Amino acid sequence: MAKTEKSFTRNFTDCLTCVQVLNLMVLLGFMLNYALRVNLTIAIVGMIFDEKDAQVVANLTDSFNVTEHPEHITQTRYHWDTKQKNHLLGCFFWGYVLTEVPGGRLAEVIGARRVFGYSTLLASILTLLSPGAAALGFGWIVALRVVLGFLLGATWPAILPMASKWIPPMDRSKFMSNMMASSLGAALTMPICGFLIAHFGWESAFYFTGIIGIMWSVAWFAVVYDSPAQHPRISDAERNHLMKALPQDSNKGHRPVPWRSLLTSAPVWAIVITHGASVFGYFTVVNQLPTYIESILNYSIKQNGLLSSLPYLGKYLCALASSVLADSLRRSGSLSTTTARKLFTALAVGLPGILMIAQAFFGHDRIWSIAIFTLALTINGAVTAGYLGNGLDIAPNFSGTIFGIANTLSSIGGWLSTFMVGELTKHENTYSQWQIVFFILSGTYVFGALVFTFLGSGELQPWNSPPSDNDKREEQPLNEQKA
């Protein structure tokens, strides 16, 4: 038995380094993270029934040629109105905002392996329970989504502390692009869930994503560790390379957060405000695009799932390409870290703002609308080379805390976006009402881009590593030490 395990370890490490394994697991982890989140946005179209949905049910039958399976027509559906629908989509963020800062700080203290792994595992189990919760009543499914948000809220800020221990500074933009695999997860989840819902009912979307989540969690704990020093199967060559490439903190334990310096830092607030503005727009599209495609553009659910996935696929590809380019330009000295972060943030957040104006005027046309949405979210993927990993530049020791603060604001914005759309469309779900949504998104995007352009920085902040008590004593004159 021992020989077999040793042989597997040797063959496995010959194929992939531990950093490559980490990149792969983080990429898959964020794909899953959004699969657990956005499954509801496509499933809810099949969960709700009212008078207007009678024709939608008929279209579903025609779209998939359902003739031998009448259960596809008579599956359980709920009489939730538009306000309840948006309430359900938005309640995820009630729990999400509570664990952003604690999740980032907890990862700095106990490590991202446990924070990210256990949060995803428990969220996957809850996802399997979603159909049962809906059957119990509207309040139960709302409560489950709140707890789901509570668990997943800790995952995003947890990854930055892990990057500070595993990824050399000039490779971090590329690593951060793994977080945008969430878009890739959404791109795959939308059409897969659309197919499953049409053939097996909306419950299958939750069962599928929940089972995949449990499988990933088992693999995560088997192959991922918090640092090279803790990994039992890392080669000596890779460990030594990483120890040399990454700054080693000589202080034992964990530094307390310098809250005053952090909260009065202009670069920190540049990250927080820009992240909030960018994600406000992103969440609005993530949560509302399937509804917009179905109710305004009049596509069937089969077409809905496919078309809803296009912007997310484009966003991930742009995130990967821009991150590789940014790291290359920084490594060659062509751009400073500050210039690179500002340039890519301006492109990633500013251009979607301009495109939302175009959407307000041309969004009634099917082709133009899908093209603009896809282009806007594709360009937004460049945030991985911009502000998204900027906390690692300015304060790697507290990058999880900074990201947690930023994601808390953006999460509140995510809830506000669903509330905004719900209030604007609850009486008149028309294109003229959606135009108001697009103008609001445009102003938010442009504001975020301008804030980072003026306040952002890529320089290491002095409060990241304040002098320790021993350093202070060494710097004191001898006569003062004796006194």
TrEMBL record:
Listed transmembrane segments: 115-134, 140-160, 181-200, 206-225, 262-285, 343-362, 368-389, 401-422, 434-455
Compositionally biased region (Basic and acidic residues): 469-483
Keyword Cell membrane: no
This protein's UniProt keywords: Membrane, Symport, Transmembrane, Transmembrane helix, Transport
InterPro entries per the UniProt record, alphabetical: MFS (IPR011701), MFS_dom (IPR020846), MFS_Na/Anion_cotransporter (IPR050382), MFS_trans_sf (IPR036259)
PANTHER family the record matches: GH05102P (PTHR11662:SF411), SOLUTE CARRIER FAMILY 17 (PTHR11662)
Record's protein name: Major facilitator superfamily (MFS) profile domain-containing protein
Membrane topology summary: Multi-pass membrane protein
GO MF assignments: symporter activity
Organism encoding this protein: Pieris brassicae
All copies of domain Major facilitator superfamily (MFS) profile, residue ranges: 21-460
Pfam families named in the record: MFS_1
Region Disordered, annotated ranges: 463-483
Localization per Swiss-Prot or TrEMBL: Membrane
